[in-house]
Design a protein that fits this description.
Elements (H helix, E strand, L loop, with lengths): L3 E7 L3 H18 L2 E6 L6 H7 L5 E5 L5 H11 L4 E5 L3 E3 L3 H6 L7 E12 L25 E3 L11 E5 H6 L9 E2 L2 E2 L3 H11 L3 E14 L6 H23 L1 H10 L2 H4 L12 H23 L3 H6 L12
Parallel strand pairs: 1-2, 1-4, 2-3, 6-11
Antiparallel strand pairs: 4-8, 5-11, 6-8, 7-11, 9-10
Helix pairs in contact: 1-2, 7-8, 7-10
C-alpha cells in the first residue's frame, strides 16, 4: 500500500470540521497515514476546534492566500505521503475509504483515484429536490464496478473525495488558481482541470466504488436560489476550463453541441409550489447562460489562461 496524507482544506467551517477530521484520523490510523488540515485564512473558531483533536497524526498549516486551489496546492507541497487524499471539511469517510482509494496506486501509471459521494442531509430535503439536481450538491456515483475514467466518456471524480499521486500532480503544476472556490466566487472545475492535464500526460484516472464518503448538505443549499446560482457558476467555470484546455473553437462549438437547446428554453421563476421539472430545466438554462457569459469574459484573457497550463514534465508517464 502506498503511503498517504489525508488533506482537508477548510475556510470558516469550524461548525462541521471536527467530524470530518475525527473520521479522517480513524482512517489514517488504519492505513498508517497522516492527516493535514490546511486552514485557509479562517477567522472563526477553526483553531479551537482543531486543538480538541490534537494528535501526533494531525498537522495543521495556515495558507493565507484565499482560495480552494491555493489551499490544495499548499497540501500538495506539504504532503508527506506518495498519495494525497483530499476530503472536504463537510465530508465524512466511511470505514475502509482510504484503503480503497490507495489500492489502485499499485499500478505506477495511475495518477488519480476518486470514489463515491453520498448526500447526507442536515434537514429533510424538500419534495422538489429530484435526483437530477443531486450532483450540484456534491453527489457522485458511477456504479459498483471499478473503472478507468476518460474525458468525454465519464465525469472525473468530485473534489470532496479524490486523491492524487503527489509526484504526478506536482509535475503538472498542481491546481490552477484561476478556477475553484475563492471567498464569494464559487468557481468550480479545479480538480477537473488537473485530472484532464494528468490524463493528457498519460496518467490514468480511476474510480474506486468502495471509497465512500457522506457529504453533508446544509440547509442553506436547499433553495432554488442557491441551486440556480450554483449552475450559473458551473457554466462559467466550464467556459474557463474548456478555453484553457481545449481551445477557442471547441469552446464555441460547445455552445451549440451541449447548450443550444437549454439556451432556448423558456425562463422559469420558481415560486411555491415549485415545479421540479421546470426547476431542473431552469438550472440547465442558467448553466448555459453562465457558460456563454463566462466565455465572453474569459476570451480576452485567453493568452494568460494558456500560459497557466504547464507542458508535460518528467515524472508523469506518457502514452
Amino acid at each position: 500500500m502506498r503511503s498517504a496524507t489525508v488533506a482537508i482544506c477548510t475556510h470558516n467551517r469550524a461548525s462541521v470540521l471536527e467530524r470530518a477530521v475525527a473520521a479522517a484520523l480513524d482512517e489514517a490510523e488504519r492505513a498508517d497515514a497522516d492527516v493535514l488540515v490546511v486552514d485557509n485564512a479562517s477567522t472563526d473558531g477553526t483553531t479551537t476546534a482543531l486543538r480538541v483533536l490534537a494528535t501526533s497524526r494531525l498537522r495543521v498549516v495556515c495558507e493565507p492566500e484565499l482560495g480552494l486551489s491555493a489551499a490544495r496546492n499548499r497540501a500538495l507541497a506539504e504532503s508527506r505521503g506518495e498519495v494525497v487524499a483530499f476530503l472536504d471539511d463537510d465530508a465524512v469517510p466511511r470505514p475502509g475509504w482510504l484503503g480503497a482509494l490507495l489500492a489502485p496506486y499499485a499500478r505506477d501509471d495511475v495518477s488519480c483515484v476518486g470514489g463515491r459521494a453520498r448526500l447526507a442531509f442536515a434537514v429533510p430535503p424538500p419534495a422538489w429536490l429530484t435526483p437530477a439536481l443531486h450532483s450540484a450538491l456534491g453527489a457522485f456515483d458511477l456504479g459498483d464496478a471499478p473503472r478507468a475514467l476518460r474525458y468525454g466518456r465519464a465525469d472525473y471524480p468530485f473534489g470532496c473525495n479524490i486523491s492524487f499521486r503527489v509526484a504526478h500532480a506536482r509535475a503538472r503544476g498542481g491546481f490552477s488558481t484561476r478556477v475553484g472556490l475563492r471567498g464569494g466566487a464559487q468557481l468550480q472545475h479545479e480538480e477537473t482541470d488537473l485530472c484532464y492535464r494528468l490524463e493528457r500526460a498519460g496518467g490514468e484516472i480511476r474510480y474506486a466504488p468502495d471509497a465512500v464518503v457522506d457529504h453533508l448538505v446544509l440547509p442553506e443549499k436547499l433553495s432554488p436560489t442557491w441551486l440556480l446560482a450554483r449552475h450559473a457558476q458551473g457554466g462559467r467555470s466550464a467556459a474557463i476550463f474548456i478555453l484553457r484546455n481545449r481551445g477557442l473553437l471547441r469552446a464555441l462549438w460547445r455552445i451549440r453541441w451541449l447548450y443550444g437547446r437549454d439556451l432556448l428554453a423558456p425562463r422559469y421563476a420558481p415560486r411555491d409550489p415549485i415545479d421540479p421539472v421546470r426547476l431542473v430545466r431552469e438550472c440547465r438554462r442558467r448553466e448555459a447562460l453562465g457558460y456563454v457569459a463566462g466565455l465572453v469574459r474569459a476570451v480576452p484573457s485567453l493568452p494568460a489562461l494558456l500560459r497557466d497550463v504547464p507542458i508535460a514534465a518528467p515524472g508523469v508517464p506518457a502514452r
